[in-house]
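Researcher: Good morning. I'm working through a list of sequences from a screen, and I'd like to move beyond sequence-only analysis. For each chain I'm collecting a predicted structure so we can compare shapes side by side. This is the next one on the list. No need for commentary yet; just the structure.
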Amino acid sequence: MVRIKNRYIAVQIVPEKSMQTLRLSDHTLSKCLLQNVEKYYGVYGLGVLEHGFRVKYCNERTKIAVIRCLHRGQRYVTSILPLITLIGDVRAKFRTLYVGATVIQCNKFIIKHQRQFLDRIMGQTASAKERQDLFKRVMELDMDR
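Model: Good morning. Structure tokens for this chain:
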């Protein structure tokens, strides 16, 4: 029996206009990635990537997403990310934050990254209730999908 090896890619989505809000969903993100892989690598690249490809996590607040793909399709995903400039109807670009072999290690990295994000943002909030709500929204990690 052969073990199926996955790769987890943590990316940050940076909109062209910093004040612009992104309406991110797993479906929109995966559709965008698969379309661009087909555009640049053709049917072969799409065939390699389709099996085992999934957007595991997407946070609109911090603009972080986790993409799961098979080990053999990792190069297609990581090489296509800098070429994508349009996500849905919003001009944005991807920044690769981390590539790992397990979702646990990727989760640890995202928690560390989001804590740094919270440290920067917490000083701008006025009340304790707003801080608590912000902490809950940012630190929500639901990768069970």
